[in-house]
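Researcher: Next entry in the queue.
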Amino acid sequence: MSDLNAATKDEFVARLGGIFEHSPWIAKAAAERRPFASVETLQAVLSEIVTAAGPEKQFALINAHPDLAGRLARQGLLTEESTREQATAGLAQSDEATLHKIETLNAAYRARFEFPFIICARLNSVDTILAAMEERLNNSPEQETAAALAEIFKIARLRLADSVEH
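Model: Structure for this entry, 166 residues:
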């Protein structure tokens, strides 16, 4: 933590800008609130920034995430973190039938909620992801926005731990 606390704002953002997918604005805001006593304190501040950002920025954050096993994954255009996380869940090794099912569920989900399905892939398998996709399609838009943000916070917590560890 001492290195992060002592870093310039640009260094801080360079190191933590990917904690939240394509949303370095969160790390920029956190840099202004240093020093942090612990990783847990930093994680809490990052979460507070997102929570206080309001619906428009939260919607943009949610939409910054790629579809699971989607076009960007097939083209090799995911961030390094997303590529690793989707591979950990087994998505990269899925057969064509499973990929088709995921693609169909992604499309239904996006049509219903107007943002991508988000789940912390590192904490799930292909089977639990598919079950969650089917189950969460029944949520209200408000419930699903809250679920997406909760999953984003899980992803960010794991990415932050990786970043500080290295």
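Model: The chain has two domains: 2-60, 70-151.
Researcher: Noted, moving on.
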